[in-house]
Structure formats: C-alpha cells, structure tokens
UniProtKB/TrEMBL annotation, chain A:
Keywords: Membrane, Transmembrane, Transmembrane helix. Pfam families: ABC2_membrane_2. The keyword Membrane applies. This is ABC transporter permease. The chain crosses the membrane at residues 21-38, 76-94, 115-140, 152-174, 181-202, 231-251. The keyword Transmembrane applies. It comes from Paenibacillus mangrovi.
From TrEMBL, chain B:
The chain crosses the membrane at residues 6-27, 39-59. The keyword NAD does not apply. It is found in: Cell membrane. Residues 19-61 form the Cardiolipin synthase N-terminal domain. One of its GO terms (cellular component) is plasma membrane. This is PLD nuclease N-terminal domain-containing protein. Keywords: Cell membrane, Membrane, Transmembrane, Transmembrane helix.
Length: 259, 65
C-alpha cells in the first residue's frame, strides 16, 4: 500500500511534467463546448458559408438539449478516444524503453502496485478530463439550447465514463504488451472502434459488449433508459477491465527486462 | 457581410487555445531538443490552432527521463 502511494505520486508528477494534466482536460473541455455552440449557430454558419442557392430555405428544427448532449458524446467517441489513447499509449512501454522500469524492478517492488498506480492515475486523468468537458458541454447546452434532465445527464455521463475507462485499460494493456507507440495507439484505437462498430451492425448479438456503452448512454439521454442489456454490458465491461488489468500486471512482469 | 459574432460565447474557446499555445511555446523554449526542427514546431503551434499545440504535446516532445 505504501508502495502504491509512492508510485501513484510518481505517476501524477510524470503526467504533470509531460503537460498531460493540462492539455487533455483542455481539449476535452473544448470538444464539449464546441458542439452546443456549433449547433446553436448552424443556421448562421450555413448562411455565412454562402453557397446556398437563392430562395432555398432550410427548415431546421433546433434540437433539444438532450440531443445536443448526446451529439457531444458522439464527438467524444470520435476524437476523445483518440486523444485519450495518444496521451496514454507510452505509459508502460515508454518506461520500459527508457530503462526506468529496469531501474525500478531491480528493487523488490510489487508489480501489482506498480501497475495499479499506473491504472489509477489513468483513471483519474480520464475522470477529470471527461468530467470537465461534460460539465462544460452541459452548461453551454442548458444556457444556449434548452434544459436537460439532470438524472439522465448524470447517468449517461457515468455510462460514458465507464466506456472511457475501458478504452484506457485497453491502451494500458497494449502498452504493457508491446513497445512501438504507434502500434499501441493503432491497435487500441482499432479495438475500441471495432467494438463500437460491431455493436452498431449487430446490436442483437453484441448487446452485452462494452462497445454498446456509448449507445446506451445516448439512449439514456434521449429515451430515459438504456434498454435491455444495460446491466449485462455493465458487468461484462467491468469484467474485461479486470482481465485487462491482470494481463497488464502479468505482461509488465514478463517483459520487464526485454526490449 | 455583417454577421454578429457572439464573442462572449467564443471567448472560452479562444482562452483555451491561448493557454495551450502559450504553454506549448514555453515548454518548447525550455527543452533542448524536439523531434524535428524547433522552428517548425513554433510555426505549427502558432498557426495550427488547437490541433497544432496538441500535436506538439503528443509527438513533438521528447520525454526526458
């Protein structure tokens, strides 16, 4: 436990020094704020863009607050996950390559507390960033577009947060599995994308897959409930996160000395 | 064309961009070496909007360890 605290503080320091505590939350905030603004001013933007034939009128209904918030979550699914994977990809592999982990593991330290500290700092970065971004999106949506049901918004945020945690755990696992940063980013992004695509194409067979979580949170916002399979997806996701964590611990142990 | 730009709404975005760009430039001036020439990163951060700064933080910095 003492070791965990030590490692955790080291991870936090490292994330601060590499400016991750600065740019990841800011980019998330920007993504969150942008969607309500763009939606609100869409008619003006189209008018200003100017290549509309004369006399053509676009009937555009202003979407409801919940719809805009759901669209924001869609933004996070595209760019947010990319930002997340990019910021986390070298967490384990980077230390292995620079020789830091060899130095650490020459002492009797536990691999579990080492990996757990990485995992916890990853979770806190994701939670803070997403929390900030979602709060910004929520505030702007309520101010500019319309009210959102508080309970639904919080519930949707929690489901989405779980999906981001899942993507983060996946990245950490691949970071412990291999060294090239580009490879880690590519595989983790691909896996996350594939999972949510698979749910989009085969919603019946993938109802319990972690890839269903983004859709579930959108459904919570728009319809008030996540539908059947919510509980299953929740449990499976948590189970997979535990498996990924155990895998990351095992792989750090096995690959500690090899390059 | 006279469209009213709602500056009070866009201000937070500009502030975010400014913070990222300024911190990026400060960190750039402090590090000894980056991936690729330094002047190029200055151009990218200044002209590349938010994406430029993010790009610098992700790939430009050499993590000193």
């Amino acid at each position: 436990m003492k070791q965990f605290g030590l490692f955790f503080r080291k991870e936090m320091l490292e994330m601060g020094r590499s400016y991750r505590w600065l740019w990841v939350p800011l980019v998330f905030l920007m993504l969150g704020v942008m969607q309500p603004i763009v939606t609100r001013f869409m008619p003006e933007i189209l008018k200003a863009a100017g290549n509309m034939p004369k006399g053509m009128t676009i009937m555009m209904e202003m979407p409801s607050g919940a719809e805009v918030l759901a669209q924001t979550l869609g933004q996070y699914n595209a760019i947010g996950i990319l930002i997340l994977v990019l910021s986390l990809m070298t967490m384990i592999s980077g230390e292995r390559q620079s020789g830091v982990s060899q130095m650490i593991f020459s002492k009797p330290v536990s691999f579990v507390s080492y990996a757990a500290a990485k995992w916890m700092s990853m979770i806190s970065l994701i939670t803070a960033s997403f929390g900030l971004g979602y709060a910004g999106a929520w505030y702007y949506t309520v101010q500019m577009i319309g009210p959102v049901d508080t309970a639904a918004a919080v519930k949707a945020a929690l489901f989405y947060l779980l999906w981001m945690w899942f993507a983060g755990s996946l990245t950490l696992l691949f970071s412990s599995l291999m060294n090239p940063a580009a490879g880690i980013a590519f595989v983790s992004l691909g896996a996350a994308l594939l999972l949510s695509l698979a749910y989009g194409m085969l919603p019946r067979y993938m109802a319990w897959s972690p890839g269903a979580l983004p859709q579930i949170s959108a459904k919570v916002l728009l319809q008030g409930s996540g539908g059947t399979g919510t509980m299953g997806a929740l449990l499976i996701t948590i189970l997979f996160m535990i498996i990924f964590f155990v895998g990351a611990v095992y792989m750090t142990q096995r690959k500690r000395a090899r390059f | 064309m006279n469209t009213d730009i709602p500056w009070d709404l866009i201000a937070p975005l500009i502030v975010i961009w400014l913070i990222l760009a300024v911190v990026g430039l400060i960190s750039l001036s402090r590090t000894e070496s980056t991936r690729g020439p330094k002047w190029l990163w200055v151009v990218i951060i200044v002209c590349g909007n938010i994406l430029g700064s993010v790009l610098y933080f992700v790939v430009g910095r050499k993590d000193v360890s």
